[in-house]
Automatic annotation (TrEMBL):
Domain of life: Bacteria
Organism for this UniProt entry: Paraglaciecola psychrophila 170
Name of this protein: Uncharacterized protein
Amino acid sequence: MTEAIDALSNKILTPQGDGYYADVAQLVADEGLIKAQLQQELNKLNAANIPVDIDFKQGIKVLGL
């Protein structure tokens, strides 16, 4: 999993950092698709109220200050 995340990060962040924004936009348009099988699995998670994203809350109110 770590290798896959590193590879994808390099595939997106390196060209973006080098200023090739159009290339990154094209990559996301071409490969950033949610296919039917993944959508079915995401629907199952949603129906079961299982979070699929991390919602990091921070700030003064969270700290009680």
